[in-house]
Amino acid sequence: MTNIQFISKTVATAAINIQKTVQLLQEDCTIPFISRYRKDTTGNLDEVQIENIAKLQKEYEVVVKRKEAILKAITEQGAMNEGLFAKIDKSYDLQELEDFYLPYKKKKKTKADVARENGLEPLAKIIMAQNNDDVDFISTKYINDNVSNEDAALQGARDIVAEWINENIYVRKQLRRLYERKATITTKVVKTKKDGEAAQKFNQYFDWSEPLTKAPSHRLMAMLRAENEGFIKFKIEVDIDEAYDIIDAVILKGQNKTTPHVQLAIEDSYKRLLNPAISNEALQEAKAKADANSIQVFANNLGQLLLAPPLGEKRILAIDPGFRSGCKVVCLDEKGDLLYNENIYPHAPQNETAMAMKKIKSMVNAYKIDAISIGNGTASRETEFFIKKIAFDKPVQVFIVSEAGASVYSASKIAREEFPDYDVTVRGSVSIGRRLSDPLAELVKIDPKAIGVGQYQHDVDQTKLKEELDSTVIRCVNSVGININTASKHLLSYVSGIGEKLAENIVNYRSENGPFENRKQLKKVPRLGEKAYQQGVAFIRISNAKNPLDNSAVHPEAYSIVEKMAKDLKLTVHDLIANKEKTALIKPENYITPEIGLLTLKDIIKELEKPGLDPRKSAKVFEFDPNVKTIKDVKSGMILPGIVNNITNFGCFVDIGVKESGLVHISQLKAGFVSDVNEVVKLHQHVTVKVTEVDEDRKRIQLTMVI
Known about the structure:
Elements: H1 3-8, H2 15-26, H3 31-37, H4 39-42, H5 47-76, H6 82-90, H7 94-101, H8 111-117, H9 121-129, H10 135-138, H11 150-166, H12 169-182, E1 184-189, E2 207-211, H13 217-228, E3 232-237, H14 240-251, H15 259-306, E4 316-320, E5 327-332, E6 338-344, H16 353-366, E7 371-375, H17 380-388, E8 397-401, H18 406-410, H19 413-418, H20 424-437, H21 439-443, H22 462-480, E9 482-483, H23 489-492, H24 499-513, H25 530-536, E10 540-541, H26 559-568, H27 573-576, H28 580-583, H29 598-609, E11 639-648, E12 651-655, E13 662-665, E14 686-695, E15 700-705
Parallel strand pairs: 4-7, 7-8, 9-10, 13-15
Antiparallel strand pairs: 1-2, 1-3, 4-5, 5-6, 11-12, 11-14, 12-13, 14-15
Helix pairs in contact: 2-5, 5-7, 8-11, 9-11, 11-15, 12-14, 12-15, 13-15, 14-15, 15-22
């Protein structure tokens, strides 16, 4: 099987599209570049499909490498034959390959190995042959210094038979199917730990049972965490008689004097070898699916968070609120650069409210502030009320911004490099302000796991999580495009084809030579070669460039085509851009070249209509209910405004202006007729909810969505 055939089993597109996509990937083309600028080559595959092809290509390479290792290991043992070689050579299933290898795999000394050393393999073969032999009498021939009697001889022979049954590929396949269809997960509480406070959040799993296939990812993750923390024990099992029937159908040949010995070997093989192995496989497979599900939830949330509406290039006053330690205030210019910082103490115990008001008003005027960004942590609501009491000389918008991960950023190497002369409180406040002006540019500096969206992200496969989150960040950054003259080193590193080292070189070049005036200048950056230029240039923007296409998503390789379009319309490129009346006259089929086809040309015309358009919406002011400040103010039946701040498979969490977010269970979304929460709500969506239950002791709020 070729790699293209392997990938075609999963990806629904023509083989030629897969072949050309793999070729582009092998030529070190990035996924954003391929999906945006090589649509005609790939048959218009999107980023998700291309990412899937890239993953499957890696899987194929892993299978091929493992197959080669297995063939080599068996050959070196002198155990290879034509039939076995053909089976292994034909297989592209890792699990099946491991089954073929199992009899030849080096392992610790087993009961069967001991029996073989004691000369009992011929007796095992007689039992396994299941002819009408008097094995009880025959077994007497195998008594020796290490085998004391007939029972010991028969037991040793059965140990060997049990191992053969365990290594039977058909038995293992049939049992796997049984586990896939009918496995049950059952839990029991560890009695010595059930009364602890930490155990109570898992109390629903103290005595729990359900089909493994029906256990949703969040529930399986919860059970696994409960077991890891020692509160419960669980097992994966199927009906034992059904399992025996499956093995009997493969192994038993009829009824004779050897049958009881074969049946004993079957029972031993299942209980001691097969059940532990196959049940563990079933659990690992379920865990892998739950991991994938949780990772996807996290990636979806992260993508929505990164593409949250930006306020844009405005002057912002940002506040990291606090009580005793005061509120840290910073003033930022349109580029997010720090202009000024100060502490104010409007709340208890200092209660310097009047002085704080005077200072805020003075800063707003002195630094021409357009908007105020307040972190949503401790004292957030109190600070919001305080700010709204100030009579500013001009309209100033007030926003509450999530400060999740701000403390992680403030103590990071990136923050120290950006603000070496300021402490963590100033850095954290700057982050809160910059998140309002451009969430994408600021949040890429923080480990996504610290941002606080998703479910069980610390329990999933961390390598796969990082890969998916990195892909999400790259996808978001390149879908928006970045201003090369204002972007941080960290943001630049996610641009297609750039990476960390080239991003640093770009920033250094910018510092030494001033702002980039055109895209061609990118070629002057040290170590930035033709390939990196080709992959990344169209994802950068240069505002006020001499060539307006330098501030668009049109790739320089198509500039000549745009110039020809303009010339044919008797216009300059400047006059063509954003001129819908004229772009509507362009017939893309007239401009097809061997390199640039119809799909790309249609994208170019669409881009000319709205060059460099940011796909994100604009930030909107949101106001919580002014009467609700703490969980004590929340009562059943209340109708409240809120913001969705986390989405999971079991529902969404909504910030209603108190420290504790409320849960809208999936059953409460559109009367429960929904399997994917993302079908109904999005992160940061402004919603209206109704309080159905408040548990102050456990700090839990149950909500339902108001339609």
